[in-house]
Request: fold
Amino acid sequence: MKSRTRQNYRPEIDGLRGLAVIAVIINHIYAPLLPSGYLGVDIFFVISGYVITSSLKNYKAETFASFLTEFYARRFKRILPALICYTTITGLLISFVDPHPRSSLLTGLTGLFGSSNLYLFRQSTDYFASSTALNPFANTWSLGVEEQFYLIAPLALWHTCVASNKQKSTFRVTTALLVASVASYIIFAWLLKYNLSAAYFLLPGRFWELALGSITYLNLSNKTTTKSWPAIISLIIIICSLSSPQAWQLPSTTIVTCMTAIALIVIRPGIMPYNLLSNSFSVGIGRRSYSLYLWHWGILSLCRWTIGINLYTIPLIIVLIAAVASASYAYIEEPIRNNKSPRRYITTIGAAATSLCVASIPLLLLIFPFKNMSYMGRRPKLSQAGVESLVNKYNIDGIEGAWNGEKCVLQTNEEANKKIRLKDCYLGNWQKAKKRILVLGNSFSASFVGSFESLIKDHGYAIAVTSSWGASPVEGIKNNGIWSKANNHYWNHIAPELINQLKPKDWILLISDLSGYSPERHTSKTISELSEFKSKLAKFSTSIKQKQISLGIVDGIPFTREAKCDPSMSIQQWFNPFGVPCLLYSHEKSLERRQELHLALMQLQQQKLITVIDLFNVFCPGKTCGYEDQQGTMLYRDIFSHPSMEAAKISGSRIKAQILRSDLHSP
Reply:
């Protein structure tokens, strides 16, 4: 069996890889500088399809089995050594600084086996999915897409290698790839609108990019031109696409993908774009693009956990990325790739499988028996930490009833037919209570379950708390999110059933994360959404007032979720020498952002439709809206800014005061 030699090497393709990886790194370090730099990954996909097809077409295998073993052996040699090293080292480092590294480590583990894109997609449908910016293995999703494409490519191209009529066979394969590509592109365009995570992570929406590279090689690789302008135009359009606004994702992705395919055809020796892409600097970066792509993301993620990414640390980060990637290329990639010792391809595959098993062991140990034990930082003082604590059971000593956590919330769409029974979710004597309060909302309502002790003990109230993750803040607001079924069931069935069990003079209290109604900049869309929220809130109030039930709502609290900051990151650690890496808003800026929402709620209060409970100063008592108050109390329990039990208890006095004041003045 013989395979292609270096005589087919095209240095300008490495130069194009270099352009792509630089774009990706710039975008990941500071996205505003190159808003669509992430499209460098799409460039990689086209190049990968082209190069893999070139490689497969030039294999001279006698049997399909030998054809497959050579292909996969070469892929393993190309991908696995650096990936195994990256995953093992980064997995150990992230477990030192991330107090809850399980999600990251599972991403790394699935990445070793070419399926992290599937894991990340599943995570993206989780209401409490970890931030990809803090996950050092999130970048391996693209390797998963490519490796899944590798399961298809050899099957499609084998016939073009052995067919007696090469031209006819190539035509058939090209036709099949074209049909599949058109279908894939339609899926991609549809998913961009309705399921962005699926469009991003899954092969069906990415197949057309890889297939376009294959089609280009099969049919146009021998086309030549001596004119420079097609190559110049293609490069200019690629660069402009990388600089385009992120909102133009569909046209930008389409253009950059097609222009990359054109560039592979028209960039040839003797013209200016070729000289630009084939110089030693461009080629050097391109040849290191795989190591650069791997290590840059891990380094950036670790820096987000430690020193932060800012004007002062960026130069150090760039030097570190370049040094580590160069070492990976020089001491891992190149020696293994250029190892010419005689070895059967099946032996290489066996060695790869063994290496994967061995590399999985430290990750599995860190995930299971040594879970959270390797963390080297100081943990915040929290009675209940992490999103999982939102469904912890809660009761008050000497008080009837108990809040039974999971029985009182809808956590997934699969629970869209679940019943929430009042007897599982109240605190106090519901039947004999002076007044009853029914709490409705998304996951934020569950975090306030500890706020009502004084109302229950000292004033004879009873409280029932329910939640639906990702729910709309009031009934009637269309919910197109991935928890839409649970939301519809919650507002159409559960809430009405529970409301029917209230009596005149009782309360409904709405508690949700309202940050979506306080964007940094209002647009016609956000203004319309706020207007709809105000209208639906007024309508809901009118409907329950007919039953003489009062409506309260908790006003917007600070936007700490946008800081993507774990409570452990928010306190000074030994590995935060330059201060905590959390990007927080000032008190003044936060109030300014919340102003339109606050005014809308206050207008409804003036109309005596609702009672507004403003907890802003509880969660932002100082000049900066941080994770701790002036007494050092941790205000949030997780990276998603769900209030801590301690903050909920502090909030209780304000909630009580506002409800009692409203009851005092009610007719």
